[in-house]
Design brief:
The complex is a heterodimer of chains A (112) and B (112). Chain A has 112 residues and is an all-beta fold. Chain A has no helices and eleven strands. In chain A, a hairpin with a 5-residue loop joins strand 7 and strand 8. In chain B, the strands form two sheets. In chain B, strands 2, 4, 5, 6, 9, 10 and 11 form a seven-stranded mixed sheet that branches. The chains are: A mainly beta (112), B mainly beta (112). Chains A and B meet through strand 4, strand 5, strand 9 and strand 10 of A and strand 5 of B.
């Protein structure tokens, strides 16, 4: 079973629409990271959230860390074709010696 | 500035042949180094990580091995490839355990 579950797995929307991607776990995380990956390239970090309830904004992207630090969401406003990509959340359970664990990913396609 | 490079970018190998993927980091010292494998459009599975020269930790049992002969060099190897070894392999580095991961360009391996 995946430590971090992302939903939806696939999302195809029209340019200008809003969307939300979810990253859920039964474990508590000390921090969560969100990455975006384009085809044939490595993922690139978008944001790190560390405090329960924290909200961070990056232009049209809004990231939220759940109060209990078990989940996170990524909301995109007025999506554009350039937002197309694979969105990955990643985190390490609190108090764990484990390395960073990645979610299963959400493949977003924004159609012009 | 720091850079990370991995090669080759694409590799097609017959079953039973050996494998060597190389990764080098420049502009930093004593990085944490990682090898991930990614199935098409999905999350990343950590294969190996290293916190120093000659120190390799394996996350999952498999047909692959890793070595770190120099501070900024990380090599992924196999003596005999299996069909199931096909995938997209990503090398990454971080300055510390909880830090941002910086990924290489990826190596796509097809085993026939």
């Amino acid at each position: 079973t995946q430590l971090l579950e992302q939903s939806p797995q696939f999302l195809s929307i029209q340019e200008g629409e809003n969307l939300t991607v979810y990253c859920n776990s039964s474990s508590v995380f000390s921090s969560l990271q969100w990455y975006r990956q384009e085809p044939g390239e490595g993922p690139v970090l978008l944001v790190t959230v560390v405090t329960g309830g924290e909200v961070k904004k990056l232009k049209r992207l809004t990231f939220q860390f759940g109060d209990a630090r078990k989940d996170s969401s990524l909301h995109i406003t007025a999506a554009q074709p350039g937002d197309t990509g694979l969105y990955l959340c990643a985190g390490r359970p609190s108090g764990s010696a484990r390395q960073l664990t990645f979610g299963s990913g959400t493949q977003l396609t924004v159609l012009p | 500035s720091q850079t990370i490079h991995q090669w080759p970018a694409t590799l097609v190998q017959p079953v039973g042949s050996p494998l060597s993927l190389e990764c080098t980091v420049e502009g930093t010292s004593n990085p944490n180094l990682y090898w991930y494998r990614q199935a098409a459009g999905r999350g990343l599975q950590l294969l190996f990580y290293s916190v120093g020269i000659g120190q390799i930790s394996s996350e999952v049992p498999q047909n692959l091995s890793a070595s770190r002969p120099q501070d900024r060099q990380f090599i992924l190897s196999s003596k005999k490839l299996l069909l199931s070894d096909s995938g997209f392999y990503l090398c990454a580095w971080s300055a510390h355990r909880d830090g941002e991961l910086f990924f290489g360009e990826g190596s796509r391996l097809t085993v026939l």
